[in-house]
Amino acid sequence: MPVSIVIGSQWGDEGKGKVVDLLSQDIDIVARYQGGANAGHTIAWDDTTFVLHLVPSGIFHEGVTCVIGNGVVLDPAAVIEEIQTIKDLGYDVEDRLRISHNAHLIMPYHKAVEAAREEARDADAIGTTGRGIGPAYMDKFARTGIRVVDLLDRDVLREKLTRAIEEKNAILQRIYGADELDVDKIIEEYVEFDQLIDPYVTNTSEYLCNALDEGKHVLAEGAQGSLLDVDFGSYPYVTSSHPTAGGCCTGLGVPPTEVNRSIGIAKAYCTRVGNGPFPTELNDAVGEQLRDVGNEYGATTGRPRRCGWLDLVALRYTSMINGFTELAITKLDVLSGLDELKVCTAYQYNGKTTQRFRSEVQTLEKVEPVYETLPGWDDDITGVRHLAELPTEAQDYLAFVSDYLGVDVSMVSIGPKRQQIITDLEARMPA
Ligand code: IMP
């Protein structure tokens, strides 16, 4: 059986957690392939709302095994706490979670260096989540990182940590004038993690490849969004990993020939947290309405999200990179009550109209969106379960998006709860 990938098609927070939770009903394994505790994947059912930061969003389905792949940067304290909270909710985790032995660890010095660097950048700060993600990936590629497997050998861990902390203390003190970290305290804290993490540690690439050979179906769960990809996003206002489809193979160690489904998740409008260009941003009452109605506050940091109209130029770009075979449109209900809806179908740049997305900051911050205006609808659609029950204007909005992109819309989410999703969309084929 193949690998399906769930990919954020915008700047993150598209509602991937909910879609992964839904698809997990028919899946054997859900595997996270990049990012770390900067992600916040929200799942809501009955009276419970749960935000997952590291554990894959399939964990609430008993038959599903969850994998944290080698491409993830793992904060051991955060994952241990998350596991405990999931267990407290009554779910078995011990036999159902596997953590790659090759995943790199987030250390306290990664967060300290990140905080010092962001402060020093001042007005040019990236606006990171403060979870140490960038510095951890830096160490990975500088080949000075510490991996999950190192936790299991106390002597190796002590030696690697001592060397790393000495170096980081020099950076913190000499470059940023920040406080030094206490080597012994960190070592004491991290050697404690080995027993807690040990039951989960696995060669996950081997595990996944064997599972695929046995006919199991793997759902690869991306974090963040394609426009935050370190290569394809608006660098440097990006995260430090590859949320795009390519990240799945390197972040899990599965062959590209196994991937046959690339599911793009797109909000019915756009949001962005942190700094960086956002062509369709609305700094007006409509933007505020989207934030209020959509509860657009970061699931990890609580920061208010910047809100704007749907940007189809950007979406076509991420569809191209990821080869979306289908789209899930989320939060369509948030648009209810707006008289008219604008959709960006081109950019004006240097006096010319273009449908080409340019990720370079210098260009992207100068483009002016060109909008098509579509009629809005008033009805509350949060109880709708079938496409045909949606107001015509809402159906037309979906058809417009699908036609522009040339990609089918296969799911439409109309509220935060598990059951608030429309899946009978086969009829909406692009023209
Ligand atoms: P970092 O990933 O913490 O280094 O942050 C880099 C950029 O990515 C910042 O603009 C963050 O706000 C953004 N970012 C990171 N993770 C998420 C996410 O899960 N959702 C939305 N934005 C994110």
Question: What does it look like?
Answer:
With 431 residues, this protein is an alpha/beta fold. The chain has 3 domains: 3-99 and 200-263, 3-Layer(aba) Sandwich (Adenylosuccinate Synthetase, Chain A, domain 1), CATH 3.40.440.10; 104-197, Adenylosuccinate Synthetase, subunit A, domain 2 (Orthogonal Bundle), CATH 1.10.300; 265-422, Alpha-Beta Complex (Adenylosuccinate Synthetase, Chain A, domain 3), CATH 3.90.170. It contains 13 helices and 20 strands. It has helices spanning 16-23, 76-88, 108-121, 133-142, 148-151, 154-175, 183-197, 204-213, 246-252, 285-293, 312-322, 361-364, 392-405; strands at 3-8, 29-32, 41-45, 48-52, 65-68, 73-74, 97-100, 104-105, 201-202, 218-221, 259-267, 270-272, 306-308, 310-311, 326-330, 340-349, 352-354, 368-375, 409-413, 421-422. The strands form 5 sheets. A 10-stranded mixed sheet has the order 9-7-5-2-10-1-11-15-19-20, sandwiched between helices. Strands 14, 16, 17 and 18 form a 4-stranded mixed sheet that branches. Strand 3 and strand 4 form a beta hairpin. Helix 3 packs across helix 4 (133-142) and helix 3 runs parallel beside helix 6 (154-175). The protein is globular and about 65 Å long. Residues 427-431 have low confidence and may be disordered. Residues 11-13, 38-40, 126-129, 131, 133-134, 223-224, 228, 237, 239-240, 273-274 line the site of inosinic acid. Inosinic acid binds at residues 11-13, 38-40, 126-129, 131, 133-134, 223-224, 228, 237, 239-240, 273-274.
